[in-house]
Amino acid sequence: MTARTTNQKAWWLVAPVVVLVAFNALVPMMTVVNYSFQETFGDNVFFWEGFKWYEELLRSERFHDALVRQLAFTATILAIEVPLGVAIALAMPRRGPWVSVCLVLMALPLLIPWNVVGAMWNIFALPDIGLLGRLINGLGVDYNFTQDPTSAWVTTVVMDVWHWTSLVVLLAYAGLCSIPDAYYQAAKIDGASAWSVFRHIQLPKMKRVLTIAILLRFMDSFMIYTEPFVLTGGGPGNTTTFLSIDLVKVALGQFDLGPAAAMSLVYFMIVLLLSWVFYTVMMRNEGT
Question: Where are the beta strands (DSSP E) in the chain?
Answer without folding.
Answer: 38-40, 46-48
